[in-house]
Design a protein that fits this description.
Layout (H helix, E strand, L loop, with lengths): L1 E7 L11 H4 L4 H14 L2 E7 L3 H9 L6 E5 L8 H8 L5 E5 L21 E4 L4 H16 L5
Parallel strand pairs: 1-2, 1-3, 3-4, 4-5
């Protein structure tokens, strides 16, 4: 089994409750259960982590060397955190960044992604399906042995 780390950043513990018109009605726990169901098809073992604290997210990214792939939704930090960018750059593990909403249809400041510059790919705008698409993307990358297709 391939080990996949799924990291969610600040305020994502509130999806399904906050701004349902942006993030939908599915809770983070629901998304995690759906990811586990889909992950079994790819023979993935998933580990989930959520934090509202930048340093904790960085610590978890640095553990990425113990995983075959990482899916990360840095939340608001994706637009501001050079430290998370540097943490992703510091590991050799494939990383896919996801966003539930289409960030380019939102406020102008969300159009700039800092952390995604270190990711192997970015998926945005498909609601919870963004996470499932990231699973598929990692599966394809790990199957063919390439971090870019």
């Amino acid at each position: 089994m391939k080990k996949i780390l799924v990291i969610n950043g600040p305020n994502l513990n509130l999806i399904g409750v906050r701004e349902k018109n942006v993030y939908g009605e599915k809770s983070l726990k629901w998304i995690q259960r759906k990811m586990e169901e889909e992950g079994k098809k790819f023979k993935f073992s998933l580990t989930f982590f959520q934090s509202n604290h930048e340093g904790e997210i960085i610590d978890k990214i640095q553990e990425g060397k113990n995983f075959d792939g990482i899916i990360i939704n840095p939340g608001g930090y994706s637009h501001t955190s050079v430290a998370i960018l540097d943490a992703i750059k510091s590991i050799n593990t494939p990383v896919i960044e996801v966003h539930i909403s289409n960030i380019f249809k939102r406020e102008e400041f969300r159009h700039r992604i800092i952390t995604g510059k270190a990711a192997n790919g970015i998926i945005a705008g498909f609601g919870y399906i963004s996470y499932l698409a990231a699973l598929y993307g990692l599966y394809m990358m790990l199957s063919v042995g390439e971090t870019t297709l």
